[in-house]
Structure formats: structure tokens, C-alpha cells
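dumping this here so i dont lose it
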């Protein structure tokens, strides 16, 4: 995603940034069941990122090769959801 040829890329980056900031504040400002809920919402966002990356790769909207290939987006989402699940299971959240 080249921000020079696609000015909307910066807007999309800000959307992700504010989403992650909101999730982080939710996690840091809560305890117990409320915190676990924020954790699950974050995992749901990670799964959405994974699906979005796969759909964009399939639709040709993201490059399959290069510095940030489309599969990387899906792998990052899957990794986040997996680590979140492991933390929930272990009781660390």
C-alpha cells in the first residue's frame, strides 16, 4: 500500500491505529470479566484482519509478493488471535 499513489492509505492506517488504541485503553482500564471481554473483542478484530487479508489477497487487492505481501496480513491476524486464545486459556487475562 503505497501512500503516495493511494492517499486513502493514511486514513486506513489511522483507523487501525485508533482501533488498537481503544482496545489497549479498554484492556488497561478494566479488570476481571470486563477485561476478558475487551480481550475477546481484540481477538475478534484479529480474526477480522485475518479474513480481510485473505479476501483481499484472493480479490487481487493486495500484492501476493513484495515487502508486505497479502498473506502476511492474514498470518499476523491469526497469530494475534492464537496468542489471545492461549492467554485466555492460561488464565493470564
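and the seq i came up w/
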Amino acid at each position: 500500500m503505497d501512500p503516495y499513489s493511494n492517499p486513502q492509505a493514511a486514513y486506513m492506517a489511522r483507523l487501525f491505529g485508533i482501533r488498537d488504541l481503544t482496545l489497549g485503553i479498554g484492556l488497561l482500564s478494566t479488570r476481571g470479566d470486563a477485561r476478558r471481554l475487551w480481550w475477546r473483542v481484540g481477538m475478534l478484530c484479529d480474526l477480522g484482519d485475518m479474513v480481510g487479508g485473505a479476501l483481499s489477497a484472493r480479490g487481487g487487492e493486495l500484492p501476493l509478493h513484495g515487502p508486505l505481501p497479502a498473506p502476511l496480513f492474514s498470518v499476523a491476524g491469526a497469530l494475534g488471535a492464537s496468542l489471545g486464545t492461549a492467554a485466555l486459556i492460561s488464565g493470564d487475562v
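Residues 8-90 form one domain.
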